[in-house]
Design goal:
This protein is an all-alpha fold.
């Protein structure tokens, strides 16, 4: 119940932010929404909910993993089309309220398929682990430099 409450709280805070800041600026949005933990709690809560439901209904998710993957692809294409064809300023409500949870939903759609993959060879697994660690480190350094 707490998880659902935090999701609602995060949504309501984004709505309040949008009402108080209807004009959109990517720089301002990055500093005031994307980088603020209370507005990002929904991403963590979606992950917790997915973990719970995956553990409870593992068979369902394994059976429907291709369907979820397809829905994830469609949602991602829809999101890309929004980016390409709409001026960011004309859909400020989307960026302030919907964008971050929508991206989390897209990622969640890919998880059942990714969880069903079989383990790769040891050499390939080490390469992927190295690249993941490297990319995350670069992300953290880059984000710190850009933010400050």
């Amino acid at each position: 119940m707490v998880v659902y409450g935090l999701l609602v709280l995060s949504f309501l805070l984004k709505v309040i932010y949008h009402i108080e800041n209807p004009e959109f600026s990517l720089t301002k949005w990055t500093a005031e929404v994307r980088s603020v933990v209370i507005y990002r709690v929904d991403s963590v809560m979606f992950g917790i909910l997915f973990g719970y439901y995956y553990a409870t209904y593992k068979g369902f998710f394994q059976l429907k993993s291709s369907m979820f993957f397809g829905v994830g692809i469609l949602l991602m294409l829809f999101f890309i089309l929004l980016l390409l064809f709409f001026n960011l300023n004309t859909i400020a409500w989307f960026w302030n309220i919907i964008a971050l949870p929508f991206i989390s939903l897209i990622v969640l759609c890919f998880l059942p398929m990714l969880l069903s993959w079989h383990k790769a060879s040891k050499k390939f697994g080490h390469l992927v682990t190295f690249l993941c660690n490297l990319s995350y480190s670069v992300y953290l350094i880059h984000y710190s430099v850009v933010l400050f």
